[in-house]
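For the sake of transparency, this paper describes our internal protein records without simplification. An entry from our holdings is shown next, in its original layout:
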Amino acid sequence: MLDKLKKIVSEFDDLGGKLSDPAVMNDIKEYQRISQEYSNLKDKATLAQKYIDISNEIEDLNSMVDHEADSDVKELAESELIDLNAKLVDLEKELNTLLIETDPDDAKNIILEIRSGTGGIEAALFAEDLFRMYSRYAEAQNWSTDLMSLNQNDGGGVKEAIVSLKGTNVFGYMKYESGVHRVQRVPETESSGRVHTSAATVAVLPEVENIDIEINDTDIKIDTYRASGAGGQHVNKTESAIRITHLESGLVVTCQDESSQHKNKDKAMKVLRARLYDVQREQQAKERANVRKSMVSTGDRSAKIRTYNFPQGRVTDHRINLTLYKLNEIINGDLNELIQNLKIEDHKNHLTS
């Protein structure tokens, strides 16, 4: 334990030193990366140093008890040892939680994809509700949002929405949202008052840089075409829309939201890298599943993870058997209680695995 804690403190100090290095300070991306690592390690390093200091005190007191002739001094040292050992036990509990190996992708920004599923217009309206829910949650978290693609349904609602979310530990919070979300409610068009069940799928993809996923020009096929739909004077006049096909995987990404072909290509490549990276993550998760089955954060988007029941005003997360009777607050973006409970269960799984 001590060796591991000393390594954490040493790494923290090294990062602090790098932050004052002129070469790093002049490289914005490198400075941001190191600052993020420094911030992520701060709590661990603080507790680690505290544990090391108390351990050293205990070692000194044990030596005093073994060699001290004065009975009063010896008794005082033994009394201090009892207090310090109790503190060390409490610190160890805190450290056991903090030292859980976090997902290296937790600090990453994400690409959020929401698609309507079974249920026709009602499913599209529910997908729109989820889109609004996540947008409000992102706003409350002070994350920046960038709408990358929006495909609206003719009868109302959303067929597909793709959004980039950027901020602190976005993937760490949002990764629990991947899966099938189900809604139970009476549609406005339902005259008999019968409850309908519809669904939408959510994909949370960690955003990746070129260094994470390398895509060569020979790996892809790029087609340009004229954008359709609302979009200003450029629509249908220039071939600004982009379709990128990844030849090996067959993945296809389209983007036509920007008036510039170059901007559309940049956005489409960002989505393609995230999807390819997600495929890699899923393959790794399947390999790890043989070793440890996780209730939370499976990332399996074919699995029903949550039900939103409007008549009863409840939301149930099926992975942790949690039901909250606060549907209005949740659907309006208050996801804190849900996500915190999912995080706690995820940590428990890591501790017992």
